[in-house]
Automatic annotation (TrEMBL):
The keyword DNA-binding applies. Keywords: DNA-binding, Transcription, Transcription regulation. Residues 13-79 form the HTH gntR-type domain. PROSITE patterns: HTH_GNTR (PS50949). Pfam families: GntR (PF00392). GO terms for molecular function: DNA binding. This is DNA-binding GntR family transcriptional regulator. CDD domains: WHTH_GntR (cd07377). PANTHER family: MANNOSYL-D-GLYCERATE TRANSPORT/METABOLISM SYSTEM REPRESSOR MNGR-RELATED, MANNOSYL-D-GLYCERATE TRANSPORT_METABOLISM SYSTEM REPRESSOR MNGR-RELATED.
Length: 79
């Protein structure tokens, strides 16, 4: 497993994209293995110090990249 650097969004890009990139790097490194449940949007926002809307947009970006799948009422999981 490789270590993923701390989250430090670039001022030249959108914060949601940086957050999605960071979570994607954690998935690629094995820190978040297949089947792992991601924190809820509010917890994710609190952990990363971003707005809930930013965490929601990052989660959507991860779904669009087909890295995670959201099951309504259950949560978001790494595929």
């Amino acid at each position: 497993m490789t270590e993923v650097p701390d989250f430090d969004p670039s001022p030249d890009s959108y914060v949601y994209a940086g957050l999605a990139d960071h979570v994607a790097a954690r998935i690629a490194s094995g820190d978040l293995p297949s089947g792992a449940k991601l924190p809820g949007e509010r917890e994710l926002a609190e952990t990363y110090g971003v707005a809930v809307g930013t965490a929601r947009r990052a989660t959507k970006e991860l779904r669009d990249r087909e890295l995670v799948k959201t099951l309504p009422g259950k949560g978001t999981f790494v595929v």
